[in-house]
Amino acid sequence: MTLTNCSAAELAIALQKGETSAVECATAFLDRIEATNSTVNAFLTVDREGALAAAEAVDASRAEGKPLGPLAGLPVAVKDVLCTTDQPTTCASKMLKGYQPPYDADVVERLRAAGTVILGKTNMDEFAMGGSNENSAYGLVRNPWDLERAPGGSSGGSAAAIAADMAPLAIGSDTGGSIRQPAGLCGITGLKPTYGRVSRRGLIAFSSSLDQIGPMARSAKECAMLLQAIAGHDPGDSTSLNTPVPDYSADLEKPLQGLRIGRVAAHFGEGLDPEVAEHVEQTFATYEAAGATIHEVELPHATYGVPTYYLIAPSEASSNLARYDGAHYGHRWDGTPSDEKGITEFDSPLVEMYCRSRAEGFGPEVKRRIMLGTYSLSSGYYDAYYAKALRVRRLIRQDFSKAFENVDVIGGPVSATPAFKLGEKTDDPVAMYLVDLYTVGTNLAGIGGISFPCGFTKSSLPVGFQLQGPALSEPLLLQAAHQYQQATDWHLKRTAALSS
Ligand code: GLN
Predict the structure, then answer these.
(1) Is 103 helix (H, G, I), strand (E, B) or coil?
(2) What is the 3-state secondary structure (H, E, C) of 214-242?
(3) Is residue 408 within 8 Å of 261, Cβ to Cβ?
């Protein structure tokens, strides 16, 4: 048995039966990371020592017969947007290079309490802004299915780590699609939970009214296991929901008889790759064969999703990122004079320090977002941009509520195309923003969404299917995805590009 080829669910059984140990598991994945990370660049930090120590502790507890949870001993990769006391947390930005947080994120605390073994921190788009993982200050990530293509973003490192067998489980964050889109492009499963279901304490904020943390794995069943460990109320995050956490595995095996799935005709319009369309339609057919019914629904304001998101998210980001000024937080200019174009005259030495620190610390996409957000919040433009975006957001939210009066979930593509070539969209921010067409609505409405593989193109690239469900419908989303995965084997496919 090659441990790195096993899924988390298989590893959990092998660990419980004593067929392998947590140390053996951790070692196998750490070795795999060592062999492949120079190609994929999925990890920014690898914590061999810490991982082995955590694994030894689990093995010792097991030997003593102490009760252990289902995730005990399972390796997990954590997106570098979450604070960890024992590893740097950079958000893939030069601004936070070498930053060592004084506390663990709530999710990290929960992962440790569950006995998972944190392998390291995964690469991402800087401050989670991007859809290709090309915006990292520490180098792009390659898609394990085709190394010339992007893995998606911003949780591209987490998705690629699973696809490349460098980790069986990973944590991502999703503000406008950053769990679901890379999951789709890398052929794995990822869930964006309802806003507030998972605590964001210790998540470095991008857009606070949209950010949510969620599980990534090979299958829905494993996402359920991981969500179980990280979901729940946290008094340290005032937006976290104080409602009971259900048993996410309880309904997985229930058949889908009678499930009403919505299909949005507008999702199949211009720009949708024909191969993606074919696999998505086939998925609806598979669901019908499993006893679900398909109903046409409308989301009339969906076309405004991208512009609405790209006003709200940058506005909140411009505010959240104001703290990185070289004095309170973040990289500080070392005082070396520079004649960089555009910034040669300053009101005071303090202002010069702020400006130069931010100019050096942030990458181009983050600067673009700060400018967009500052503009849309500025007096004179606020009503025309930010306030209007909030009103459209409400309409988008109402569209979903209305649709969910007639259907239980809404199905469709995750992305309009399979993984695109590295560099293909880097010179065209609008083309990159349009990649988020199908995913941003979920965040704007604060609801749940799951993405899972539903086929492969002729050139062997994975295609993702998305199911969106009302607030707190995670049990249903997981059940519907799991039932699909019982009927199909797309989620079991492994990459050839990196096979050793
Ligand atoms: N691609 C989107 C963006 O660039 C979504 C990012 C995310 O969900 N973190 O903002």
Answers:
(1) coil
(2) EEEECCHHHHHHHHHHHECCCCCCCCCCC
(3) yes
d(CA 387, CA 407): 31
Q: What local confidence, expressed as pLDDT, does residue 499 receive? A: 63
Would you kindly state where each structural domain of the chain is located, as residue ranges? 3-258+409-492
* 155 Cα to the center of ligand 1, angstroms: 9
- Which is catalytic among the residues 79, 94, 192, 425? 79
Return the ligand 1 atom nearest residue 174 CA. 8
pLDDT at 500: 52
pTM, rounded to two decimals: 0.98
Alpha helix segments (H runs only) across 130-219: 156-163, 180-186
Residues 266, 299 contacting (CB under 8 angstroms)? yes
Distance CA 274, CA 497 (A): 24
101 neighbors 135 (Cβ within 8 angstroms): no
pLDDT score of 345: 84
* Ligand 1 touching residue 203 (CB < 6 A): no
Average pLDDT, rounded, for the chain: 96
The CATH fold assigned to 3-258+409-492 is Amidase signature (AS) enzymes (3.90.1300)
Q: Which residues of 58-72 are buried (b: 16+ CB within 10 A; e: fewer)?
A: bbebbeeeeebebbb
> What tokens does 43 get?
């990890």
Element (H, E) at 293: strand 293-297
Residues of the chain with pLDDT under 50: none
Round to whole Å and give the CA distance between 42 and 39: 9
User: pLDDT at position 270, please?
Assistant: 87
CA of 211 to the centre of ligand 1 (A): 9
Indicate which atom in ligand 1 lies nearest the CA of residue 365. 4
3-state secondary structure of 319: helix
* 368 closest CA partner among 422, 418, 321: 321
pLDDT of residue 438: 97
Q: Which of 82, 93, 122, 125 to mutate to test the pocket of ligand 1 (most atoms within 8 A of CB)?
A: 125
Spacing, Cα 154 to ligand 1 middle (Å): 6
| Residue 178 falls in the annotated catalytic set | yes
> Which of 27, 28, 21 lies closest to 2 in space, CA to CA?
28
Distance from the CA of 368 to the center of ligand 1, in angstroms?
13
pLDDT at 498: 77
Dihedral of alpha carbons 496, 500, 136, 124, sign:
positive
Query: Which atom of ligand 1 is least distant from the CA of 175?
Result: 8
Q: Is 130 in the pocket of ligand 1 (CB under 6 A)?
A: yes
Longest CA–CA span in the chain (Å) reads 70
158 lines ligand 1 (CB under 6 A): no
